[in-house]
Amino acid sequence: MELQEVSKRSAAIRKAYHALEREYHGSEWSAEEDALAFLTDAGLVGRLTMSHEGRWPSDEEGKLPSKIGECVWWLAVLADRAGLDFSDCVQLFLADTEQALK
């Protein structure tokens, strides 16, 4: 899947969640709340990875692939909310890191 498709589908899903937030809470989550939700899911990836490696007891190890995907989704959403192109962000990081490691 191309990163542009990830961005487009992520934005559509986030739009649907915004509608639910308005319905249930009267307002949409802020970018800061989205960032905190991402951090929560990133922490869960850590615990599920520990479980996968036999270092943390969990009955939810099977959720690891979905949680990794959810973190990518959050990152695409956060880039969009900041007015950044997700694909450009990933490409910039990779290019900078490859250059730094030469």
Summarize the structure in words.
This is MazG-like protein. The chain has about 100 residues and is an all-alpha fold. Helix content is about 75%, strand content about 0%. It contains four helices and no strands. Helix 1 packs across helix 3 (about 65-80) and helix 2 (about 30-50) packs antiparallel against helix 3 (about 65-80). The longest helix is centred in the N-terminal third of the chain and has 23 residues, at about 5-25.
The H/E string reads: HHHH
Instruction: Estimate the strand proportion.
Output: under 5%
Number of helices: 4
The parts where pLDDT drops under 50 for at least 5 residues are none
Largest sheet: none
Q: What's the pLDDT, averaged over the residues?
A: 97
Distance between termini? 29 Å
What structural category do the secondary elements indicate?
mainly alpha
Tell me the total number of β-strands: 0
Which of globular, elongated, flat, extended, rod-shaped describes the shape? flat
Question: Which labels suit this protein?
Answer:
mainly alpha, 102 residues, 0% strand, 76% helix
Element layout with pairings:
Elements: H1 3-25, H2 31-52, H3 64-81, H4 86-100
Concise description?
Helices cover 76% and strands 0% of the residues. By secondary structure, it is mainly α.
